[in-house]
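Internal tracking record. Fields below are filled automatically when a chain is submitted to the structure queue. Please do not edit lines marked as system-generated. If the sequence contains nonstandard residues, flag them in the REMARKS field before resubmitting.
Queue: standard
Priority: normal
Entity type: single polypeptide chain
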Amino acid sequence: MRLQIDYYIIILFQIALTLTTTSESSQTGHFSMDSLKILVVEDEKVLAVDIKNRLQNLGYTVPDITDSGEEALKKVAETHPHLVLIDICLSGKFNGVQVADIIQNHFGVPVLYLTKYSQDPKLDKKQLTQPFSYISKSITQIDLHIAVEIALYKHDIEKKLQDKHQYLMAVINSMGCAVVVTDTKGCVQIMNPVAERLTGWKQDEVIGKDLTEVFSLIDNDMNEPIENLAKQAIKADAVLKLPENCTLIAKDGTQISIGDSVAPIRDPDGKITGAVLVFQDITKRKQAEAELLRNAFYDGLTGLPNRILFTDRLRQAIERSKRRNDYHFAVLFLDLDGFKAINDRFGHQMGDNFLVAIARRLELCLRSGDTVARFGGDEFALLLEEIKDVSDATNIAKRIHESLALPLNLDGHDIICTGSIGIALSGIKHNEPESLLRDADIAMYRAKHEGKARYGIFDEVITH
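SYSTEM-GENERATED OUTPUT FOLLOWS
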């Protein structure tokens, strides 16, 4: 994290102006620097002594001067200076640039290069992107003072920024959610450990990659990939929620349900500098929601649709019949004959197992697209769609009777239980599911009274 050069120039110009004014008002040129220590590394002895004297005149402490890189590293370790002035053309095993790198990176001490020429070619590669990092050996005392103060101030700012960056990274890395930060182009800049774990990518693998390469998302409702979310949030200049039903495709192909949001990042001036994506694995939440949905619409014992779901499908069938003259359907209501005796003889656990087995048989009796539901106890309802006439419904009823006539072997016992079936056909007078279910129920009871193991078709004339 680096402060912009323009910002440096403004701040450091203010320092320079202050120092210049102070210098001009002082006759001795001595300043109280609270014993700031500066190490001088220069292999021209006369020049090294001259620089030392200037620094001491300015109020700094110069614990030593040295003429080699190896000795400089030892002195830094021993004296812990606040700043090192080093000849960029230092002779010896290590040149000035190499020594400076060690001093800055290992000891965390700022460095000012000493050079005979401001356009020294050795500066081109190393220093052009680092403002206020070198001074001329022929510099005046006041300019030396300004350069030193600027170097110290710059180092202090960078240290504070680095500490802030480390603190923010510690916060991000401690979050229980996954975090991915991008630049304005939607390319990854930061990933925390949770994001690494969910995506399967390591941060050092993805820096600079387009978000979609790392964060591959599928919108399950649309069955299509989701475009770069960072770019979407930046373009919309708003916080965006992830699609409700989306899946993250991890690096190894693992599919994970995720959710949360993506938002633009703004600097103190309000300018968008990137986007932050916060997300989490919601697989367990999705499973819990699916379980709640299943409990609301499916029978807990048999796994068949319950009365609520059946009624909804029946209502849809009624609406469909209003739009299509050629669409016909039927409702069958089934009540098992003698089920109470099975419960009384073998117990409720055996009775439950028997109902589950019956449910499976009823499913096998239906065509694709039809629905069988358990209404509770030993009552079942069936919705037969796209039938041509009543014969399609009676054929299903006969098939059910044939299936029920086959003994069920449960815990070594062969059990047979017949069923009474009532049939109600779709018609103009049926505008609500309850009316069809009522008619099917009436037909079922008529069949049961006629001898059980039968089916009956609702006839309004006979009923009245």
